[in-house]
Amino acid sequence: QVYDVQSRQTCFVRCCLKIIQTDIHDHFVILLRKWDIIMDTNKELNYKLYLHKTTGFVRTSFNMEFERYAAVKNGNVEQVRKNLIEIKKDFLAGKGKLSDDPVRNIRYHVIIAAAQVSRACVDGGMPHDTAYTLSDIYIQRADKCSSESKLIDILEEMQLDYASRMKSMKKEQVISLHIRKSIDYIYEHLNEQITVKQLSALVGLNESYLSTLFKQETGSSITEFVHTAKIKTAENMLIFSDYSSSEIALSLGFSSQSAFIALFRRTNGITPKKFRDLYAK
Q1: Residue 27's pLDDT is what?
Q2: By C-alpha distance, which of 67, 80, 126 is closest to 248?
Q3: 227, 74, 242: which is closest to 159 by C-alpha?
């Protein structure tokens, strides 16, 4: 009887060891498979990068992509149109090959653009359900399209649609034509120094009356509105690009880097560098 108990114990221990050995073996096999996949991917990656060098392929820079999506987000319809004219000259320039099939390749790029634009507009204040449902609509249209040129037309329509909606959002509380025209000008000329004198000449009102009307309809003075628009754009550039403070100051029409930093600190309570350190991804 004692022997029988010992035999059972021995058998149990052997079974446990067998299970452990099997688990270790299976786990090791899984690790090897994962390693093989990584090695295969690295081989393909290195080969693709080699081809890029030998063929002179250069991807569109992140900064340029950011500027294009920022134009949509800011509702700058005219700039979006200009960007699209350049893009359509050679649509695939700077873009990776996502499929050997030409139509499917462009369709994938349209889908990626839809995702990027919708997220940018959500960040700009568009309700997320509106932005993502609009993205669904254009992706479905792209899915049904079998023409390269028509797919590019869908991309153009989509970006202009989003930009127009963002533009309307920014002035939906504004009533008068004069103020709408002033706001359009401000968003389309953020790279310049914008003055009340310029806007009054644009809309045909004297400076004092325009300033009073602008304050009544927007709740901000013209100077405050311009500063807010520029600082919001600067915040996005600090988060999503590697532009320096001096480059941002120059691109947004500030008289100097110190003037930009002073306004940024006055608005946010911290310097642009500190803001980037805190929020840049």
Answers
A1: 60
A2: 67
A3: 74
Q: Is 51 exposed, middle or buried (0-12, 13-18, 19+ CB in 10 A)?
A: exposed
Burial of 32 (0-12, 13-18, 19+ CB in 10 A): exposed
The alpha carbon dihedral of 114, 120, 124, 128 has a sign of positive
What single DSSP character describes residue 269? S
What would the two tokens of residue 217 be? 């309809």
Tokens of 163: 């930009």
* Beta carbons of 76 and 188 less than 8 angstroms apart: yes
Higher pLDDT, 100 or 6: 100
pLDDT computed for residue 1 by the predictor: 47
| Backbone CA torsion sign across 113, 118, 121, 122 | negative
pLDDT in tens, 180-207: 899 989 988 999 999 999 999 999 999 9
Find tokens 């695939």 and name the residue.
92
Written as six digits, the tokens of 169 are 């959002």
d(CA 116, CA 93): 18
Q: Which long-range contacts (CB under 8 A, 24 or more apart) does 96-103 make?
A: 96/59, 102/148, 103/145, 103/146, 103/147, 103/148, 103/151
Q: How far is CA 112 from CA 95, 105, 119, 242, in A?
A: 11, 11, 11, 22
pTM above 0.90, yes or no: no
Q: Which two tokens stand for residue 168?
A: 């309307």
- For the stretch 220-263, pLDDT in tens is 999 999 999 999 999 989 988 889 999 999 999 999 999 999 99
Token pair of 212 as six digits:
């009073």
pLDDT recorded at residue 240: 81
